[in-house]
# Entry
Amino acid sequence: MFYHIKELQYDAKPERPDPIFAKQLQEILGGQYGEISVMMQYLFQGFNGRADKKYRDLCLDMGTEEMAHVEMLATMIARLLDNAPVKDQEAAYKSNPVVAAAMGGMNPQHAIVSGLGAMPVDSVGNRWTASYIGASGNLMADFRANLTAESQGRLQAVRLYEMATDQGVKDTLSFMIARDTAHQNQWYAALYELEQRENDIVVPSTFPRKLEKQEVSYTLYNLSEGEESKKGRWASGPSMDGKGQFKYSQPVSYGPAPSLTPAPKYIHDTMIPPIKS
Amino acid sequence: MFYHIKELQYDAKPERPDPIFAKQLQEILGGQYGEISVMMQYLFQGFNGRADKKYRDLCLDMGTEEMAHVEMLATMIARLLDNAPVKDQEAAYKSNPVVAAAMGGMNPQHAIVSGLGAMPVDSVGNRWTASYIGASGNLMADFRANLTAESQGRLQAVRLYEMATDQGVKDTLSFMIARDTAHQNQWYAALYELEQRENDIVVPSTFPRKLEKQEVSYTLYNLSEGEESKKGRWASGPSMDGKGQFKYSQPVSYGPAPSLTPAPKYIHDTMIPPIKS
Amino acid sequence: MFYHIKELQYDAKPERPDPIFAKQLQEILGGQYGEISVMMQYLFQGFNGRADKKYRDLCLDMGTEEMAHVEMLATMIARLLDNAPVKDQEAAYKSNPVVAAAMGGMNPQHAIVSGLGAMPVDSVGNRWTASYIGASGNLMADFRANLTAESQGRLQAVRLYEMATDQGVKDTLSFMIARDTAHQNQWYAALYELEQRENDIVVPSTFPRKLEKQEVSYTLYNLSEGEESKKGRWASGPSMDGKGQFKYSQPVSYGPAPSLTPAPKYIHDTMIPPIKS
Amino acid sequence: MFYHIKELQYDAKPERPDPIFAKQLQEILGGQYGEISVMMQYLFQGFNGRADKKYRDLCLDMGTEEMAHVEMLATMIARLLDNAPVKDQEAAYKSNPVVAAAMGGMNPQHAIVSGLGAMPVDSVGNRWTASYIGASGNLMADFRANLTAESQGRLQAVRLYEMATDQGVKDTLSFMIARDTAHQNQWYAALYELEQRENDIVVPSTFPRKLEKQEVSYTLYNLSEGEESKKGRWASGPSMDGKGQFKYSQPVSYGPAPSLTPAPKYIHDTMIPPIKS
Amino acid sequence: MFYHIKELQYDAKPERPDPIFAKQLQEILGGQYGEISVMMQYLFQGFNGRADKKYRDLCLDMGTEEMAHVEMLATMIARLLDNAPVKDQEAAYKSNPVVAAAMGGMNPQHAIVSGLGAMPVDSVGNRWTASYIGASGNLMADFRANLTAESQGRLQAVRLYEMATDQGVKDTLSFMIARDTAHQNQWYAALYELEQRENDIVVPSTFPRKLEKQEVSYTLYNLSEGEESKKGRWASGPSMDGKGQFKYSQPVSYGPAPSLTPAPKYIHDTMIPPIKS
Amino acid sequence: MFYHIKELQYDAKPERPDPIFAKQLQEILGGQYGEISVMMQYLFQGFNGRADKKYRDLCLDMGTEEMAHVEMLATMIARLLDNAPVKDQEAAYKSNPVVAAAMGGMNPQHAIVSGLGAMPVDSVGNRWTASYIGASGNLMADFRANLTAESQGRLQAVRLYEMATDQGVKDTLSFMIARDTAHQNQWYAALYELEQRENDIVVPSTFPRKLEKQEVSYTLYNLSEGEESKKGRWASGPSMDGKGQFKYSQPVSYGPAPSLTPAPKYIHDTMIPPIKS
# Structure
């Protein structure tokens, strides 16, 4: 069960309305790496947790915090939309090019659809979709997804911070950026712990290595002309899992050119030889 | 530019057709973490690469390999669909419960839409969408996404290996699983290199820390009842970025309960006080 | 079968082109609560109608009218796009800020994709999807969906009316708003009739109440801090279905904290205790 | 902010695993009218609330409860998936037709993607999308959407109750069905209160009626052959808003057949008269 | 405006219910090339028609017919779902493997969501989306899309005919297949007429050829190893537009390897050289 | 397998950055008829090819070329985004209306999400989806889809050419337009060859005509008031397949008005007669 506390985790008050920034800020609310995504991802990982209780609890602690972030951003966006000048557009466009530009840059659904409220959409208006998130039951895989989400999320928050001029907005973003710092550190720590415990960095660590074609387990194929990619840590030396040596190789084809069996007649694919009706 | 070589990277020949497995195998072709996703993700990261050439080349090497995996899986799926028994269904259902079960378990679009061909869909038939992928220009963020994709992808391939009984299928999967081992190791190495070079694990490392609310940068809030989450590496000790100490804290509210301004009349939101028409 | 009459249900002629308004007007054509949605929703309810003929006929009457609205709006949008100034953009941006703003505010697909035609999209360009609509076979549930659609639809039309300055546009909208008034009244009447006939307001009325946990059938749980929600009609007094008394209650947990069984090994979830590879 | 309590609102324990029912039960978790939809819809209505505090609080009370329902259903689905027999499929299909049928009827992603966990998807595997929900700022419109969602949701839960044979599943569903009874009554009461206060049933009540084409505000057009639809409360008598009389009318066309202006040459639409290259 | 006639264009009565076939038949109702797609595509082409009236009328004639096809298929699907055995599933699965198989193969939403009604979805349950259709204002482009849709549509109908055993279903499909024959012939004729009139087969014919890089206007590049593709009409001889000669060529690169400018600091992309925080 | 060559197929260098045009150019990269669509469509047709090798090779030649086009456009878009002025927005909006307009017209995700990189999206930001493409196994159907895609694609490229003022952009587009000319000619030729070989223009040509209702195989129904559509090649004379005569006919109904059986009680649809709870 959940319980809602009226106070915000952090204040979310812009100095003044700005409907264009409201549109842009939607990215970290309802975008691919926005707060709805991390909230849903962590909660489903928690609800489905079949492993140690502490991981389950960790997911639920963080997922519950992300809900507070959804709330803060929704509140901020609603305030950025206060009194958005959507009435009598022609007048606005004619009299004031700056207002006109602003109107051209706002999301029209903020006026027409949500009535000056936040929406579960990204900065171009794509509706949030669960295609953004994952929960696999394998925590090393999932915590890597979480670390990714926090990395992309903090990057986007930082870019918005750079674009912003409103001190209220910047202040709220500085809080959210700090929380992303915390979450990146925490998922990183959890991954470190799991890698130690499973004694491997390869997901899933439980599949016997002898069942995979081990001769290609550490090779980088040079499939893009030029050898710039040879110069990295990934191309030579011991592999990161400590179980092999990195190799750099020209492309190899292990299989023949494929040839498919013709389809049965009742499928009505094009057949060889020519068909007469 | 690209050039296509007719030979497959590895053979993709099942011992015998199996339309149910064809449906399931679609997951790692056209699903969220399937081969189309990694191919598109790596190629876009490569095409957009503004940093060192070696990272760009690495992305293009791997993205180009993933195209070969798309080809292998498409070929395998087409062969698993050879002669799928979709004609005269009623007869099949009546005479043979095992065939009936098989027909109930295949993807009907493999017969009706693709004519026994592979499709850019997942194992339940969702069409592939670019909502699955990301390329941000920040390589640490993006390579974490890549490591995640290879981790989830190998996990799914392993699960399919466990479900399979056909030795041809298992053999092809054992190749793909090995390549996922290689790719996990390689992205892991690239991340290690980037973390060393940027001397930080927090993305983006270029945002001045003093601009974030540093007092909350290492705290885990206990927002889910119970303290199981206190027992992990993430809750105490030095933070993973080496710049602070992890803290475990009861929830704190830094903001007031929000109150929004009423909308202007021309928005026609519900107003306070009661409106008379 | 259907038959198409060339005349429009109402004229759809703006005084002058306005590509920005064309973009905005798309919301009530191809948006979540636009004319395509109600057309498809009512037609499917009609086609699937297994109850009294008069409800089936009502759905088909209205669904057929909504097709005329799709036609009117498509026509209006095409006219708003007449001679949209998309050629030689740089010149326009440089010479005339108001034209520049207009160009920034139009939907580029109106030029590139549809060639100055209307599209089945909303005001930000999301393609129409059948995820917007429903037809369940239970008319009380479905007519509530219809009343909702007409309410949201009229609200959006009214907001567009407020934004418009073109008298031709306003005139057409005033017709569509009146039809939404009619449709809200009609679905409301149909719902009233169904509630009387089923002697209940709860959908479905055919499920025996004794099979539900009746002790929680009229309670509002105070799950958000503060008791403002206690002051409404919904928190005390007889319930609206006349079968109970509203109650206001602090949160109650009837179930234990859940604990899930570990997954079988072949699933490769993270396991307890630690796994060694 | 939110706080998570470990106990479930109600127990969610099936008597035994059943992967087919797990797939079906996904409908009311991640489907169009599932718990994720109502949770997100009510929370956004609450966060965006600009009207009386009690409505905001009501939305947050209910939205917070729906999160508990998401948790219960996710838990139930995970348990229904315990030990799903996905290994060595061929053996299962050959030896036991009932197991074979079960495997054909389960969602393969429950094994391959989520590792026996619940997913934010419906019963056929469509990922949850925010296209399902709405929050307009006009409470009468929104509460009608809420009443619809609870009506469709209870209908679906009742149908699943009829399909179920497991007493644990039925018991949990009987709790959820009762809560849907409560929520239908509560939104119905809130709507009643709003209609009284606004003295109208037409949304938005704040648009001056004289601005709409009032001569068509109460007419039902007989656009589907036959007059069955004439026999309802909606076709004659006083209108539900008390402001007019229902009318039944043969179709009327108020507008001319439209004719569109040819596009400018730079659009490259097909032109009249014939174009020579 | 439209008018609905109660009679079906053709009867749509299966001999007996068959919920599996109902699911499969959804493909040509709500799938990519189903009746909803052609209906919407033709209607939007008609509504947006800026060229000769006869083309506009043709689109509206056909679009209006496709609505009748939507109605026929929806009716057929509803009848195939009559009395679907969805109650007490466990009993069904245990007692009768053939019924069990049938239940595993039906779309669960046909019971849970639509109450035994047709849905605007394809055979795996993807909701219909306007991403399937197009209307560009250039009739040669659009009629090619129409000819494609009728070709794919007839192919799918033929495949379903092969899968069906019910004589009522086959009879209805034989009507729809014949209509697809008519529509393929008609769009083919319209294309022939347009090609004659525009004296070109290349869309758009109105773009001056001298503005394109004409030296590559008729070349096929051999970008896939092997020269099988050299043996077709497309690789040599006069081009189909009569304005050039087909050529077969080894791949040519006209551009240099690209190199992108580093991003400005405020974008926080990965930079060259190493960044110190 | 594939191999990547660093050189571009053609140069992709704008004279100067232009973030608005970057947004617009996305249409032909990641839109419905953009380069990702043709690349994926041709590759899947090739991978699934069960007919003559030369068609398979043709699809792979062209699909591989389209990948080079994806690369060129991605490169062009990245360069158009060089140094996009997204920092300190307020200043820009205030000081310079033309810059302000430009900022209002750019895709905010180009700054926030992709860090000045191209994205797999269209010109309004819809993510690319495999719903755009098809591969049916029947080559006549598929090559018609390919001809359509090249026609719509060239039309969009031409429109963008008209909108552009940058000579670098125009030059690249003139190359892509020429390649579209080539591809239209080539698919046209392949279709011509297939029609000759199958001696029919109707897809699939392998379904016995006697199994369709041949009396309606060449009729155009006048379902839209007025007879403008009678004046085309499609309404009289020999049919294009040479097997019949076109006819023009007033609408005919071959079926009765449908009436559906009531649903079983356990479905909880609305029933006839009135239900008492």
Remarks:
- Chain E touches chain C through 47 residues (CB under 8 Å).
- Chain E has two domains: 19-198, 209-249.
